[in-house]
Amino acid sequence: MKVAVVGATGLVGTKILEVLAERNFPVTELLPVASAKSAGKKITFKNKEYDVITPEQAIEMKPALALFSAGGNTSLHYAPLFAAAGTTVVDNSSAWRMDPAKKLVVPEVNADALEATDKIIANPNCSTIQMVVALKPLHDAYKIKRVVVSTYQSVTGTGKAAVDQLMQERNNLPVTMVYPHTIDLNVIPQVDVFLDNDYTKEEMKMVLETQKIMGDNNIKVTATTVRIPVMGGHSEAVNVEFENEFEISKIKEILSKADGVILQDNPSEKIYPMPKYAHESDAVFVGRIRRDETQPRTLNMWIVSDNLRKGAATNAVQIAEVLLKNGWL
Ligand code: A2P
């Protein structure tokens, strides 16, 4: 299968190439795509070298699948052009996520939303993906009323230039600022831009995308999203109020059996999820599970996952695997 990776020189694009190779996705011809300034650069995939090409060149070659991670504007412009050439697009940007005509998919949660006619499919926001993978089995069991989430997000979520800012600051080099403030030895309570309601766009993505993926607009979500000087993954403190009463032992049992989740919860041994351990894994790690003692039917937990893998590349490739399995590619 001819597969284009749009944004192949970026952090997520590089990870998509790794994940495609690892999972033996049936790529017969790879089209690594980046901006015109990267055209002609070499990319190695499965021990073979490929030239980086422009989106225009890739469209002419009519790939069956294009995995996009090149920012919202690139997606808005090029995804419809690929789709018009017959390519199915899985897009990692926020460009199409809330379009009612586009599916927003986390395979463990709503793979059944996909249809043969979907030509542009949206990959959700990284913080949302890891949260819904853990929440869905609990929603099925106890029905979620309200979620309060605070995130601790890795700089890798902002792309290569952000990782450079952190390392330049750490190594006392001249700094090219990507964030509005110093990130090393700091915590920035702003992820993405501010909206009219004084929430950030990232916070509202977590609200709206959770409802869309879970297929339930009655789930109330409120979020505070925060950038921290970490690379391995995003962490989240999540408080969940259910309609129905639960037992902690049953919550742990459900999560230990849930698709895509690894339960890591043994306080006496100081075992809980951390980015250090989640890094390079496709799983969503859940721990620090305990009852919120201030109100009934409410749970606290801690969720960690590698934002470049399950939060981006792996989820996109898993969507493509569902399409393939259904004979739609
Ligand atoms: P390039 O390296 O040529 O700029 P990151 O998020 O890690 O910064 O990566 C962004 C990715 O999106 C890079 O691969 C970048 O390519 C790519 N990209 C940015 N703008 C375009 C564009 N107009 N067309 C194709 N790819 C683009």
Task: Based on the model shown, name its key terms.
Dihydrodipicolinate Reductase, domain 2; 14 strands; alpha/beta; single chain; globular; 10 helices; 329 residues; binds adenosine-2'-5'-diphosphate; six-stranded mixed sheet
Molecular structure report:
46% of the residues are buried. The mean pLDDT is 98. Strand 5, helix 3 and strand 6 form a beta-alpha-beta unit. Helix 1 (11-22) crosses helix 10, helix 5 (126-142) crosses helix 7 (201-214) and helix 5 (126-142) packs across helix 10 (309-325). Strands 2-1-5-6-8-7 form a six-stranded parallel β-sheet, with helices on both faces. A six-stranded mixed β-sheet has the order 10-9-11-14-13-12. The chain has a two-stranded antiparallel ribbon with strand order 3-4. It has two domains: 2-124 and 312-325, Rossmann fold; 127-307, 2-Layer Sandwich (Dihydrodipicolinate Reductase, domain 2), CATH 3.30.360.10. It has helices spanning 11-22, 55-60, 72-84, 107-110, 126-142, 160-170, 201-214, 248-257, 275-278, 309-325; strands at residues 2-6, 29-33, 42-45, 48-51, 65-68, 88-91, 103-104, 120-122, 144-152, 220-224, 234-242, 261-263, 284-291, 298-305. It has 329 residues and is of the alpha/beta class. Adenosine-2'-5'-diphosphate is lined by residues 6-11, 13, 33-35, 37-38, 55, 70-71, 74, 159-161.
Write a compact overview of the structure shown:
The protein contains ten helices and 14 strands. It has 329 residues and is α/β, with parallel strands linked by helices.
